[in-house]
Amino acid sequence: GVLLVSLPVEAVVKVIRVIGSGLVSGITENKKIMRDTTITTLDMMIIRDNNQVDPVILLSLISPISETLENSVGRLELLEWLNIHANQLGTVSGDCNELTSSLVLCMQDKTATVRNQTEKLLMVLVSRGVVTKEAFNKAVRDLPPAIERTLSSSISKIQSAASGGGATGDNGVGGDNSS
Length: 179
Prior knowledge:
Low-confidence stretches: 167-179
Distance between the termini: 39 Å
Shape: globular
Strand content: under 5%
Oligomer: single chain
Number of strands: 0
Structural class: mainly alpha
Number of helices: 10
Radius of gyration: 16 Å
């Protein structure tokens, strides 16, 4: 993490392409100290000059994050971390559609906190336009009917936000949603 902080953004993005999966997968360790250290390292990587998150670096982490969310260990910590920084996505070109399938899997987690964090994150991502309605609909299209019924309330909220209905105001990620 310390080494990556000293590199320019373009170099960090290149390094993430090589080590991103291994780095982010540290969140799946059973030991809490390893998960906490991984979050600290991720913060060190994305927070740059003037204590601002660099959206280019954050966007370059989407692929390894998507892979890591498939594992239930550390899922909550990673979702909480993403929710903190989600407002930075959409400020540069690029999308997060790759995350959609993993996030739909997280919506099925047995832990209510994980499901809530996932719904909150998806609401922000679709309202910012970095996850498209088409990508979300494709991810939920093939859900078994029983799971689709269970998730119907969340799916409706997210589809509404994706259609321009906006977030409900309690998306948990700062800012006023009124226009």
